[in-house]
Amino acid sequence: EDSKFYPIILSQTEDQKTTSFIRGYKQFWPFLKPYWFMAVLGILLTIPVGALDAVIAAFLKPFMDNVMIEQQKSFADYVPLVIIGFTLVQGTFIYLSSIVNGYVGGKISLSIRTKLYKKLLTFETRFFDVNNSGSVIFRFFNDADQASAGLIANIKLFLTKFFSSVSLVCVLVYNSWQLTLVALGVLVFLILPLRIVRKRIKKIISRSVVGNTQLITLYNETTQGNRVIKAFGLSDLMFRQFKAKADFLFDIGIKLVRDTNWLSPVMHLVSSIGVAGVLYFGVQLILNGTITSGAFVSFLAALIMLYTPIKTIGNNFISVQQALLALDRIYELLDAKSFEDEANDKDKLVLPTIKDGIEFKDVHFSYTKEREILKGISFKVAMGKKIALVGNSGGGKTTVCSLIPRLYEVDSGSVLIDGHDVRDYTLDSLRSQIAVVFQDSFLFQGTIRHNITCAKPDATDEEIHEALKNSYLDEFVKGLPNGLDTVIGERGVSLSGGQKQRLSIARALIRNAPLVILDEATSALDNKSEKVVQKALDTLMKGRTTIVIAHRLSTIRDADTILVINDGLVVESGTHDELLAKNGVYAGLYMSQFKNKEQEERDE
Ligand code: ADP
Ligand code: MG
């Protein structure tokens, strides 16, 4: 068994598991449990609603026999009042029960969503590499509500209809047991259609989930990639993709309607047959004096009331099936394994401040089973030293860095900090020692202040200004009308590439961590500001251990060790002077950059 590549890919196709009714409710129970009292209250409040239906039906017998046949005027006067009174009482209960049920439903969606989000935060980077945003988002927005609403509505419907059905059946039996047999006997014919529909729904719905998640992913790309779409004239292409997916969803919707909605007419037919049978036999029972006309009318009214919920079972059945499948998708996320699960942090060491340094020991790593990226990397960084990683693009430098804060797990070998494998430390204590400036500086929606203080929530204004000063962003921020409280838009769209990079340097600075990782931290800067920011980085690196990935070799000349990583292997290592003297890969890289630079300077 390959423990590292355990499946964390969310199901996309028809391979979704089938869920039985009982298993579904078992899975639902943990969410329902904290609110069971309110749920029971909601159900209790619905009992009178059903019972009053039966009372009204039962009331028809004395009405018929006393008023219509024996012409008792005094009784007739009360009838309208009684009907309105009952309806008022019934309405009050309906209202109260919907408030309670709404509360329970809302609380349950909330707790599903909360649990999903907590889980989402524990997923390692690989989860986000392999799952598209749509299939995650769909679970939040559709599934949480659909599962809770569908299953609660079903419990409620079942129980209210259960109570009203029981009372209505009592009325039936009270009036005539013979007719009751006829009326209920026909219900046997409903079993087969329900089974057929259940199967169809499962298939169609799994396909509609795929359609929906693809569409959500497309919407995401359309907003996030709008610049590329416009600059490359991709509107038509995007629209065609959208149309294909939207049409697909429409077809599925129609199929769902076509393949399931015959259930209602079938239910209708079955109940009509029941009514027809009752009429046929009922007349004979009246004629031979077994039952009174009043009993017959009362029976018929109760029967029609009893059949009404049976007809709605058709629609309810579809939504319950949808809810069960939604719940299944929710559990797929909740049950997915992740090495960041809190439970995995038990019995781990708490990393105090790093003392000795970092060591890679024969590290092998691959993102996917098919391709090995790091093929045995070994090196050491002593505390307080600066190590530089250079080499061809795609060679594995970023990958090496992402193994230190454990964004990914190694295949074999180990990454050691102070002599212990990074896997032996709690994630919190490990990551709190590291400040990273990523190659693509991701910024959050919100203010500049938010983007800095997220790295140190208790930072004072002085610390923030210090960080801004050291990342050479203070002049820029001062010039903004709202200063630190300027909103920079989603992913920092309102900033230039260089400003974004400097803001993410400020974010790393304020963290004040003993280990600093800089992944091409100045790549988006022009020569002039790079020199300035380089000074900031030099301050940042002073007295700390730093791992620097540099695209411009001139910035790492002073590194204690330079590692040349090509295609997943360390091909050379040493100081700048040693490597130049060696006249190998590094010397070649350096000379070519040096020549280009001289050329540039001559051209200017
Ligand atoms: P460098 O930083 O040296 O340019 P990287 O470490 O980013 O190189 O990438 C090394 C190799 O790993 C590349 O061939 C790249 O295609 C692959 N790679 C990087 N990230 C991923 C990922 N998330 N999933 C799969 N392959 C990846
Ligand atoms: Mg890189």
Structural class: alpha/beta
Small-molecule binders here are:
adenosine-5'-diphosphate, magnesium ion
What is the count of distinct domains? 2
Q: Which oligomeric state applies?
A: single chain
Total helix count? 20
**How do the strands of the widest beta sheet line up side by side?**
6-7-8-3-9-10
Low-confidence stretches: none
- How much is the radius of gyration in Å? 35 Å
Query: CATH superfamily membership of the largest domain, which one?
Result: ABC transporter type 1, transmembrane domain
Mean pLDDT: 85
Query: What is the 3D shape?
Result: elongated
Task: List the secondary-structure elements in sequence, H or E.
Answer: HHHHHHHHHHHEEEHEEHEHHHHEHEEEHH
Question: Per DSSP, what share of the residues sits in E-state strands of 2 or more residues?
Answer: 5-15%
CATH class of the largest domain: Mainly Alpha
Query: In the CATH scheme, what's the topology name of the largest domain?
Result: ABC transporter transmembrane region fold
Helix content: 55-70%
Compute the number of strand runs: 10
Question: What's the story with the biggest beta sheet?
Answer: 6 strands, mixed
Distance between the termini: 60 Å
Annotated CATH architecture of the largest domain: Up-down Bundle
Transmembrane segments: 35-60, 80-104, 180-197, 289-308
InterPro entries: AAA+_ATPase (IPR003593), ABC1_TM_dom (IPR011527), ABC1_TM_sf (IPR036640), ABC_transporter-like_ATP-bd (IPR003439), ABC_transporter-like_CS (IPR017871), P-loop_NTPase (IPR027417), Type_1_exporter (IPR039421)
GO cellular component, one term: plasma membrane
Protein name: ABC transporter, ATP-binding protein
